[in-house]
Amino acid sequence: MHSNCKIYLYSCNKKGHDSKNYLKYQRDSVNEILKYVMKKEFEISFHKSMIEKDLYGKPFLKDFPYIHYNISHCDGYIACGISNGPIGIDVENVREYPTKVLKRVFSDKEIEFVESANSKNLKFFQLWTLKESYIKAIGKGLTYPIDKVNFEILDDNEIKSNQSNSYFDQIFLEDGKFVLSVCTFRKSELSIEHWNAGGTYE
């Protein structure tokens, strides 16, 4: 069975914001994106008071349990994923990767994949966003051992995982400056829309 999965992306430049104001700007933008998405997709008038968190801290809409959504943001982008089944997304700006994290939560094969590459930072965040997307999809947060979630990315960018019954997509934004990974538990028909304050464009 296929799952419908739509990703709304918002390019939010940090220029002109200090760190504190930028975080507030992103939080406010997430709220506006959710208002737009819930109205467009479900004819729901969204308010942030509708959100509750489960025992693991994963947010959900208390009155609409059939709606599955996930939010991710980094310096430069906000991503909102909507699906008719559990979904996890993670977007990251490609930057110098933390070597301590590589050694602590990546398998030997994953470490070799990163360290043997010309574009080490990109390869690290390809794997990291995949791991994060899975953890967010299962909704266990930091209680789940991320080092147990392993991936192999083949030359044609096919993604293989040791997590059965999980499906992954990966998108490069702005010529590889950003990486977005998506995890669902049914094969998804993925579509992307770019959001701005005036609505969206394909």
Automatic annotation (TrEMBL):
Which organism is this protein's natural source? Anaerosacchariphilus polymeriproducens
Listed SUPFAM superfamilies = 4'-phosphopantetheinyl transferase (SSF56214)
Q: Which Gene Ontology terms describe the biological processes this protein takes part in?
A: fatty acid biosynthetic process; lysine biosynthetic process via aminoadipic acid
Q: PANTHER family of this UniProt entry?
A: L-AMINOADIPATE-SEMIALDEHYDE DEHYDROGENASE-PHOSPHOPANTETHEINYL TRANSFERASE, PHOSPHOPANTETHEINE TRANSFERASE
Pfam families from the entry? Answer: ACPS (PF01648)
Membrane-crossing residue ranges in chain numbering: none
Listed GO MF terms: holo-[acyl-carrier-protein] synthase activity; magnesium ion binding
- What cofactors does this protein use? Mg(2+)
Give the highest taxon in the source lineage.
Answer: Bacteria
Which protein are we looking at? 4'-phosphopantetheinyl transferase domain-containing protein
Q: Which residues form the 4'-phosphopantetheinyl transferase domain?
A: 86-164
